[in-house]
Amino acid sequence: MSKIFPKLGRSITVAAKEGGIDPDMNAALRLAIQNAKAANMPKDNIEAAINRATGKDAENFEEVNYEGKGPSGVLVFVECATDNTTRTVANVKSYFNKSGGSLVPNGSLEFLFDRKAVIEFEKGDEMDMEDLELELIDYGLQRFEIDGNTIYAYADYTDFGNLNEGFEKLGIEIVTANLQRLPNAPVEFSDEQMEEIEKLIDKIEEDDDVQAVYTNLA
Considering the domain boundaries, does residue 42 fall inside one? Predict the structure, then answer.
């Protein structure tokens, strides 16, 4: 939790700075708070993150992305929220260099990932998945992925707001909602290759400025 909460806090601060501190009027903030609550982030931490967006000494967080190639040619897309891009790019670059990889120009890997809206929710006892699918198609739903009672709804990233609206109108409680980058040509690696790849991913994810890491792993 020591690493998760700061990242969630930054998401809340960024959303509050960009769209205002009222969750009822700021859908991005509302979702950031919802995701934080799903991770059991304390209420005081959430309120502190919102207040940081309006304080006199508010950090000027900026969302930046970095793309790179790691061990065995694995493709890595890194999303960050930082108040110091010079520090962040130096850190991320060092992680790749030490693993035998390197950063590539931004936009180089964009076409190799599909950006999707992903909403997680729990299947209710009375929920008819076929009827729900028909209802949500009008809001951009592309498919469901079922894992026990946990359901993931996928849509194109441009329908993120529409899909959230659909869940709200249907009265379905969302566990988490976010944008993800899914590889459109996943690649399998050997166990030996995965050891080096996982070392790189772990190192990147440990960085406080990093919000999310995506790869082309199968």
Answer: yes
pLDDT of res. 5: 86
Nearest-angstrom CA–CA distance, 139 and 164: 8
Query: Which pLDDT band holds residue 79 (cuts at 50, 70, 90)?
Result: very high
Do residues 88 and 95 touch, judged by C-beta distance below 8 A? no
Clarify whether residues 48 and 66 are in a common domain.
no
Sequence-ordered list of residues with C-beta below 8 angstroms from that of 133, at least 6 positions apart, any chain: 141, 144
| pLDDT above 60: residue 57 | no
User: Element (H or E) spanning 53, and its range?
Assistant: none
What's the domain range around 14? 4-52
Average pLDDT over residues 203-207: 95
Which one, of 39, 7, 43, 3, lies nearest residue 23 by Cα? 43
Same structural domain for residues 103 and 173? yes
User: What is the residue whose two structure tokens read 């994810």?
Assistant: 205
| Rounded (10°) angle between helices 43-52 and 27-38 | 150
113-122 and 150-156 as β-strands: parallel, antiparallel, unpaired?
antiparallel
Q: Tell me if 57 is assigned to some domain.
A: no
Per-residue model confidence as pLDDT tens digits over 110-152 = 999 999 999 999 998 888 999 999 999 999 999 999 999 999 9
* Domain match, 40 and 92 both: no
